[in-house]
Amino acid sequence: MSKTDFTVALVGNPNCGKTSLFNQLTGARQRTGNMAGVTVDIKQGQRAHQGVTLTFVDLPGLYSLSQNRVEERVARDYLLNSPPDFVLNVLDASNLSRHLALTTQLLEQGLPTLLALNMMDEAARLRRVPDLRLLCRQLGVPVLASDGRKSSAVVPLLDQLVASLLASHQHMASLLSTCSALHIDYEPHIEQAIKQLTDAGLPRWQAVQSLEAEGDVGFELTNVEQQTLADALKMLAERHDETATELITAGRYGYIHGLCHEIDEAHVDISWIDSWLDGITLNRWLGLPLFFLSLWLIFEATFTLGAYPADWIEQGVSLVADGITFILPDTLFRSVITDGLLAGVGGVLVFLPNVVLLFLFIAILEQSGYMARAAFLTDRVMSKVGLHGKAFVPLVMGFGCNVPAIMATRTIEEPRARLITILINPFMSCSARLPVYVLLAGIFFADNAGTALFGIHMLGIMVAFLIAALLSRWLPKQADEIFIMELPPWRWPSWRSLMLHVWDKVKDFLHKVGGVILVGSMAVWILQTFPMDGGASWLEQLGRWMTPVFAPLGFSWHETVALLSGFLAKEVIAATLAMVYQANAADIGGLRVAIEASLVPAAGLALMVFSLLYMPCLATLAVIRRETGSWRWAALSIFTGLVLAWSGAWLAFRVGSLFL
Amino acid sequence: MTLDSLKRGEQRKILDISGSDALRQRLATLGILRGQPIQLSAVSPWGNPRVYRLGRQQICLRNEDAACIKVTEDE
Fold first, then answer.
1. Which residue stretches of A272-369 are H helix?
2. Upstream peptide bond of A531 is cis (omega within 30 degrees of 0)
3. Which one of A153, A181, A205, A510 is at 20 to 30 Å from A454 when CA atoms are compared?
4. What is the average pLDDT across A139-166?
5. Percentage of residues in chain A with pLDDT exceeding 70?
6. CATH number of the structural domain spanning residue B65
């Protein structure tokens, strides 16, 4: 009985095109799983090929197996504790020597490995095409060209994987080990240290790795081994200015240089288009204005391009509503469908195109390599307010949804910087707040709606930085984490990856529409419909009772109950507004007219500001509690949110009344 | 001279790397080693951090860390 299920781990440097290849290999059959004991999400996906089921595991991008950062630790421990059947090592062919450094570590460890060289077209353009057959012969493992952007490129890769897997599985079954580990000759003193460690009982790769990582390794060392290691490191420190890590790394590069001496990368130039793009985007004076201009363009496009498909959805919903009104008699049952379901859920569904567009633009920023450049441009400001450069990605992710964004802060190792990043994240306006803005901006700022969207998001960023500055004064300072970041080469986003990403977001949105938004709409409908005694509904009574608090902001009871319901999820604000106003409006289009008649423009602005700043939604609160380990921070988050929202909205209403 | 005093476009060879072990480890894994040529390619609006080029790679370093890297006086 031969085995037909295999696990293949994708390992590679950051920005080697690993994730595109993973998407190409697995298609939409993916799920994100939290590996036991570790903190960074790892994606898994399956593919059947030639009667074999391959489970691909996408490990975080890493530079080295002997470095103790979160990303490296996850991959290192995964390879040690649950060894995959095969390692698919993805490399950038246009920057081969740096990427091969990791490969030498994998091969030293004796892991069954297949090399997939991405970016062969880029290497060809630079006239540095590596000789795959030569590499294969010298390293003793299969080497193939691949391309995460072409589906045809993965078939040979899968063929080779299956063949190698079946072959190595048969050998293992016959107790024959064919995988001989790579042996690199290091500097003489390093070799001496390795000898002492192997004499103490460590396999060679563990000896090399513990020297390289200076004892900070994923496997257990006995007391004797630890003592030998300490002595060896002391001996090396006495004889060399360079650290053991530097000596071993130099050894790896020496070996790689011998492998492909014809590839002299030190003199390879960056392509003119890359230099040109960097010359503009990283320009000392133009860089930042250009970044903000692109953000403005994104919001402008989110609003204007989203309006067309939103119209179609709106027409669809009102068509269904008309149909139901025509077919069904005027009963409570009809009311629950038209005034509850269609008004509430339909009122949010209309904004799906805007949300999708925003996610698409953020993904393009990320995949093209612009995100890393923006992080570089803003690093100084971030570090001034106690944030680490790594905070940039979680903050931008917050524009999508605060929940995964807060989880992404796990890569920040310094606790204070991480806590600040978590606490300010809710001020990064998530896509759930987008429906309220799009609705209100469309009514009150129809001519400059995109600019209004941009402005409200910028206000969120400013408040976030202000709070970060305050928190960083208040929380005790800790040693700063080192900030070194590689700027990836500019790349065309892979179409397939973008579509998969967007599809994921559409699914999330629809799940939410069918879940919390549906529940919220039903609750609001019940409160709005009962008691049926001709007087004010429970909802109106509640709203009127709370209104004194919100009256200074220019809100009526309608906005009050909408904001209350938004605690469930921010999309519900739009749903509730649609329902309370639509009670006496003919169709969804009438909603805009009804709101415009009830609210002055300044109050509309105040409502946008309030929706931006007030407390995080339930899911975000839960994740703040989980990630900070205490309800105190979640409570603080509610409190500061409410105080800021009220004062911000009051200010917006007062100042807005003067100008609007 | 140290890396942080480079002017834009200037290229030098790395002579020596000091600083904490953690920093030296990070630099080594990125291929920033003695003897490598390195060039300043971009400066952020506040003059810190800066982007350096090593072959095909572009690496962003803060000036505090770049000051730990000693380079040759001229090309």
1. 272-281, 287-327, 332-335, 346-349, 352-368
2. yes
3. A510
4. 88
5. 94
6. 2.30.30.90
